[in-house]
Amino acid sequence: MAIGIDLVMVSRVQASLARFGERFLRRVFTDAEIAYATSVPELGAERLAARFAAKEATIKALGLADRGVGWREIEVAREQSGKCRLILHGAARAAADGAGVSELSVSLSHEGDYSAAVVLAVRPEPQHVQETTQA
Amino acid sequence: MTEKIRRILKDHGRLNKDALALEETADLYQAGMTSHASVNVMLALEGEFAIEFPDHMLKRSVFESIEAMRGAIEELTKST
Q: What is the pTM assigned to this prediction?
């Protein structure tokens, strides 16, 4: 089992949108994420911030920082119930499959200028060298 | 090229150290660059050098120092 957490300032996401616009959006988020986030303009930046946090938390949980994974390969999908789940694509999917990840769970949170995400990955423990030290 | 990278780091890296005086091999994440700041740095580098970082280069190690970024930019400008 492994977890990852990330915290993002909403105002910094707003600043990225103001500075880089569509390039930032299209590089980091999938079409479905953008459609959901921008469906309520006043919540757009905080929804994007939470999704960015979820992508980073996934990278941490799965140890993808040096695997060359695009942000769009980690997608946050929202179910009718409001519950969010992660969908992996491409290199992210391959890395998770390779590590034997059987379940992924994500939780998002907002408070004022902050958005946070925690990701839990269920996977077999890496093989450790048997401990031979005696008490 | 190094000076342009330093200026972009100063504008977008949100470092807790002076980007203009930093060692080229200094770890930028240790200097306070967050993952979100690294996206801004990447987008600014793409604009400055007219390049695009492919997904397989979106690695922590590519953006962890001025030296590493310069190497990546040189690789990308060579291939275009």
A: 0.90
Q: Among A55, A50, A71, which Cα is nearest to A113's? A: A50
β-bridge pairing A84-88 and A74-78: antiparallel
Give the strand pairing for A2-9 and A103-111.
Answer: unpaired
- Provide the shortest C-alpha distance from residue A102 to chain B (in Å): 24
- List B residues 40-69 in contact with A (Cβ-Cβ < 8 A): 40, 43, 46, 55-61
Which residues of chain A have a Cβ shorter than 8 Å from any chain B Cβ? 6, 8-9, 12-13, 16, 19-20, 23-24, 27-28, 52, 56, 59, 65-71, 73, 90-91
Torsion, Cα A66 B31 A12 B4, to 10 degrees, reads -90
The ipTM (two decimal places) reads: 0.87
- Average pLDDT of A22-49? 94
Would you say the C-alpha torsion B45, B47, B49, B54 has a positive or negative sign?
positive
Tokens of A78: 């929202």
The number of beta carbons lying within 10 Å of the beta carbon of residue B47 is 13
